[in-house]
Specification:
It is a single chain. With 70 residues, the chain is an all-alpha fold. It is 56% helix and 0% strand. The longest helix has 20 residues. The protein contains four helices and no strands. The radius of gyration is 17 Å and the shape is elongated.
């Protein structure tokens, strides 16, 4: 019985934290961009300038102009 309670608590804890830790692949699909367009490679909790724009503009890249490459 103790094992069942432990497993239940672990599953519950994981289920409660998943929405906060996972990205939204539907955003990449919607915009036709890869994840690294909005997130630095290997740092999915951080945002690139495009990602910050997307977040600040109601999940839309409409009107976004990428910085000029040097």
């Amino acid at each position: 019985m103790k094992l069942i309670k432990t497993v239940f608590l672990v599953v519950f804890a994981v289920a409660m934290t998943l929405p906060f830790g996972m990205g939204k692949p539907e955003y990449a699909k919607k915009e036709g961009k890869g994840c690294t367009f909005c997130h630095p490679a290997g740092k999915m909790k951080e945002l690139t300038p495009a990602g910050q724009y997307y977040k600040d503009h109601n999940h839309s890249l409409e009107g976004y102009k990428a910085p000029a490459a040097n």
